[in-house]
Amino acid sequence: MPRPGREPGPGERVPNGTARSGFANGATGLWSRSVSAAGGALALNRRNLYGYLFSLPLIVLFLAFVVYPLYFVVTQAVEPYTYEVLFSDPVFVQTVVNTVVYVGVAVNVKLFLALLLSGLLQADSRGTRFLSAIFLLPWAIPVLPGILSIRWMLSSQWGIMNLIVEDLGFGPVHWLASRWMAIGALIVFHIWKYLPFWTVILLAARRGIPRELYEAASIDGAGGLQRFTSITFPMLKGIYLICSLLSMVFTLGDFTNVWLLTGGAPGDSTHVLATLAYRYTFMMGKIDWGMGVFATALPVTLLFIFILIRKIR
């Protein structure tokens, strides 16, 4: 038996009263800690409940307009028969080619011109500032007036383009009555409309390059082309890639420009994936076909977004 004031050794017995007293104290401490933890969890859950209640309208909207449409698209797009019908439709195959040409040419030409024009507008002079303001007008003009103006200019009866062609001694040209000429008109309008926006982005990136690098290159005898290839483009290639990916995502889903300018005419030959999906879904009543068209573009769009996210990180 241990003496008072000393802890029991390995081989010594502890009196029963002492053991019961220690057990009671431990149980009381455990109970108080449990009650305290339960009270804290209840208070936390109450705060979470208030947060959920305030977020409930947004959650309902998200479920109604994001989750449910996505579920509907997936359920409609997993049918193999839908893709058998689509890939046997010559209009769909032609539309895929149109989309690749439209996105590939429009985005690359637009970004290349934006890179060049950003260098021209970088000069800090009164004339350059005036030209910059004029240059932004196409982007500031709403889409509908711009497309109506282009349609008037390309009209085969009273369009200004045909007046110029006839003054040069040629016959009238039906600009929007040919597949490739109509697609060319779409590409030209897209570049004219959105070139100022991407030029401003690249111009801002150019002005972030330290001037000391150009001064050092000039001292070393580097010319304009050498400064561009050794300083400007290496410093801009990251933002150039990000702009290209963003522009591809936007252009791949372009519906307004194509639908208002050509409407898929002549003979459904100028559709892109967005307008063809609209035609299948709302004009033909084939919802599964329309969802299948969107699903064919989804992997490419997700790939661009994945690369964009990786590049931003």
CATH superfamily of the largest domain: MetI-like
Topology-level CATH name of the largest domain: MetI-like fold
| N-to-C span | 69 Å
Number of helices: 13
Task: Describe this protein with a few key phrases.
313 residues, mainly alpha, MetI-like fold, 13 helices, 78% helix, 0% strand
Give the SSE layout.
Elements: H1 16-77, H2 80-87, H3 90-120, H4 126-135, H5 137-140, H6 143-153, H7 160-167, H8 179-206, H9 211-219, H10 224-252, H11 256-261, H12 273-283, H13 287-312
Quick structural overview:
This protein is an all-alpha fold and 313 residues long. It has helices spanning 16-77, 80-87, 90-120, 126-135, 137-140, 143-153, 160-167, 179-206, 211-219, 224-252, 256-261, 273-283, 287-312.
Report on this model:
The chain folds into two domains: 16-77; 80-312, Orthogonal Bundle (MetI-like fold). Helices cover 78% and strands 0% of the residues. It contains 13 helices and no strands. The chain starts with 15 loop residues before the first helix and ends with a helix. Residues 1-5, 7-11 and 16-21 have low confidence and may be disordered.
